[in-house]
């Protein structure tokens, strides 16, 4: 491995945290998976087991043997000090609540050794929003993964002005070493690359439907046939979910707030939340 | 065929006009292809021959026999009156110049029989921009095709408030009969469906590069891996061409005009026009 990072700690074993931890372990890194209590660790253990089974089914080269070995490389703990005592890299994937992240970084700053790099998987916070709590501006950046990490294997790497370029490069190498395609952001950008592309695209699709210009099926047909993509914007909205759509749009400009209100009235209030509820722009039965 | 449209006239045998005429003939419609002089018709004949060869290679079910039959169903003429004398549908695909279109529709209005439906393939003009010159508001609408019609087989159907719904439905059926997926616009919309999705998406990709946030390869990797699409925005820009990008962006809002200036300075003025010049966001050798 080209990276000097060896001991990895993932904080937070929710959907994405568990995927990150398992993927790193699958790629032969010793991984400590931290969560706040035993219930969370039981849930995490279940996630890891299901990921192992999923890899055997869906990932080229994965089998009972090497996924079992990945599980064996995972250490689960609720002891934060122990979890980070010898960590080269801590990947923070805790809930997206600013106060919680602040508090967590303040704790980490005290107990992690000086060598430890902190990387936040935050979707909505920039490194600048968190850096003052980390106690190590030069060794802090964001490292953002996509859901279904084994399939959508991008890792968006975003520093802030004081991130040490060597640390940045080290994390890029680490991302590569765990099978990711590193996406290098040269500056801070809300939404990174993926959401910077996805949000205007999805918004445009919603505007066509909300404005009464065209039906979801025609909007999606146009995109699929015109660009060869597997899915159009309304199909993607149904996967993302209408509640997430509402959250994004209700924080936007005036047009977006109108779309949020439209989404609430016509979908969310009627229980049409997308794929998760069985109906959104499409019906799923 | 469910459509009552039988005799089709295509006005203008440029790249797209020729594709529309050939596709309709391939789907067994007798097609009159009109252009302004013999040189244009010679060029058109060449286009039709190349399309026939292309279909044999690239279209399932196409062979020497049925593409030859398609060519035999095409009548080329420079006589506009003869071209439209018994037309059920005239598809107008002349250059995108408002004055030229106005003049053409005024001529057509006089010489075409009352039964003839007029459909404009205009990319940038709405039916409302042209309707007053047609002499038949109820029998006028836009029917917009995509380049490489045999592959990108959408036909966007867009009326104006006075288009007869029966005429609209008739044209939708015709689109289906020539192998298109009809995309029904319920109202006028600049950019139809495809460009309403494509322009904000392509703009977002260009912003990431122009703003120095990420490199074209990383922007495109993110989109391809994240969504499963075959191409990212920078790859599409290179196909669309930087000059077209400049034209779109220079008519936009303040941010878009800045992007146009950036595109001019960094690409167009350096001869990097995209795929057509061998270099754009990528080099093609």
From TrEMBL, chains A, B:
Annotated site residue numbers, Important for catalytic activity: 144
Residues of the 3-hydroxyacyl-CoA dehydrogenase C-terminal domain: 191-284
InterPro entries: 3-OHacyl-CoA_DH (IPR022694), 3-OHacyl-CoA_DH_NAD-bd (IPR006176), 3HC_DH_C (IPR006108), 6-PGluconate_DH-like_C_sf (IPR008927), 6PGD_dom2 (IPR013328), Mito_3-hydroxyacyl-CoA_DH (IPR052242), NAD(P)-bd_dom_sf (IPR036291)
Keywords: Fatty acid metabolism, Lipid metabolism, NAD, Oxidoreductase
Domain 3-hydroxyacyl-CoA dehydrogenase NAD binding: 7-187
NCBIfam families (UniProt xref): PRK08293.1 (NF006143)
Name of this chain's protein: 3-hydroxybutyryl-CoA dehydrogenase
Upper taxonomic lineage: Bacteria, Bacillati, Actinomycetota, Actinomycetes, Mycobacteriales
């Amino acid at each position: 491995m080209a990276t000097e990072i060896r001991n990895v700690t993932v904080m937070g074993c929710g959907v994405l945290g568990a995927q990150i931890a398992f993927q790193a372990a699958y790629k032969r890194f010793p991984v400590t998976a931290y969560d706040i209590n035993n219930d969370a660790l039981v849930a995490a253990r279940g996630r890891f087991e299901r990921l192992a089974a999923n890899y055997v089914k869906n990932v080229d080269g994965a089998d009972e043997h090497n996924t079992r070995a990945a599980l064996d490389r995972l250490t689960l703990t609720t002891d934060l000090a122990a979890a980070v005592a010898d960590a080269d890299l801590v990947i923070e994937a805790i809930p997206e609540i600013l106060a919680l992240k602040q508090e967590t970084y303040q704790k980490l700053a005290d107990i992690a050794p000086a060598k430890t790099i902190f990387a936040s998987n935050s979707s909505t916070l920039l490194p600048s929003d968190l850096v003052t709590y980390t106690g190590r501006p030069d060794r802090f950046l964001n490292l953002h993964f996509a859901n279904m990490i084994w399939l959508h294997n991008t890792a968006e790497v975003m520093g802030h002005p004081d991130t040490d370029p060597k640390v940045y490069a080290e994390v890029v190498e680490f991302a590569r070493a765990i099978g990711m395609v590193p996406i290098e952001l040269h500056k801070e950008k809300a939404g990174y690359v993926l959401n910077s592309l996805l949000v205007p695209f999805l918004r445009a699709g919603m505007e066509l439907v909300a404005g009464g210009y065209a039906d979801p099926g025609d909007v999606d047909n146009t995109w699929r046939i015109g660009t060869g993509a597997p899915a159009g914007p309304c199909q993607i909205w149904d996967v993302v979910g209408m509640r997430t759509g509402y959250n994004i749009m209700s924080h936007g400009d005036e047009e977006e707030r109108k779309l949020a209100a439209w989404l609430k009235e016509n979908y969310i209030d009627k229980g049409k939340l997308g794929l998760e509820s069985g109906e959104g722009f499409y019906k799923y039965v």
